[in-house]
Amino acid sequence: GNPQPRVRTETRLASAKSYSARREEPPSPFSSTQLPLPLPLPRNSSAMAPPLSSWPWASLGIYKYFLLGPLVWKVAQEWAEQGGAPLGSRWLHLLLLFSARGLTYQFWFSYSNMLFLTRRRRVVPDGVDFRQVDHEWDWDNFLVLQTLIGAALVNGPLPLPGLEDLRVWDPRGLGIALLLHVGLSEPVFYWAHRALHGAPLFGQYHAGHHSTPVTQPLTAGFGTPLEALLLTLTTGVPLAGAFLMGAGSLGLVYVHLLTFDYLRSMGYSNVEVISHRVFEALPPLRYLIYTPTYLSLHHREKDSNFCLFMPLFDLLGGTLNSKSWELQKEIYQGTQCHY
User: InterPro entries, per this entry (predicted)?
Assistant: First the structure.
């Protein structure tokens, strides 16, 4: 008889046993299998959803970008009136900021997926599957929302001081924004984030954000309208304060927003990019800037590391995960065992 079928059967059995043996190996401390991704809620489930838990333009799909159409029309009008690019147009800068901020997240997304550069320093070794891609498809809803809020402020009856005659740069604004970020934005985000992890807010608003098995830069923007409004508040307070004190400028808006998005996407990148030697040389720095490992611990364990960017507030609040820096060192060195 022909021995080939038996050989193929034995080969398949050996492969199955080898696969089962691999499946029985102990999981990585950051194994994504511990964070199963739930099926997305049906579109019509928003009818019974709590307030601000679903996006009003969810049914529009990709056509949501037409919500920014009035801004494009304003720029086109000014372009026609001036006979050239309206470089001083506030509407134009709102659209440029929308694009630049989106590209910041896309840059980190591309970098984190360059495995030839990042494989040994990935916090969670697993990749992002198609279900997560679909789940986070509308990650940029918060950018649409913040652009619309910016347009309302620009065209509102009571615009912020300095918007009418917008300066290119005022160095005083940077210091004011930094002080307001540390003094207001960081603690407000910390305590609001802790509240979102309590009942019933976690199940109503924050569980979807934590349902992603592997964080990626786009995960930073994925959430409910309530979470987006919280981010808008923490982002906007330093800018509003600088303008109210007469030190606002166009440069400050760009620097503040792009730095905010850069740090957010870096933390969610799932790639350890800050050397442990920096923290060993300057120990206080570990309380001033978080790391991707620091944030991944929060997403895995959910009871620690609640800060926005500054672990100092976890230290003061008693929620600093004691494993944060040792794991960060191991992952940066590539010595953390991944399966």
Answer: Fatty_acid_hydroxylase, Sterol_Desaturase_Related
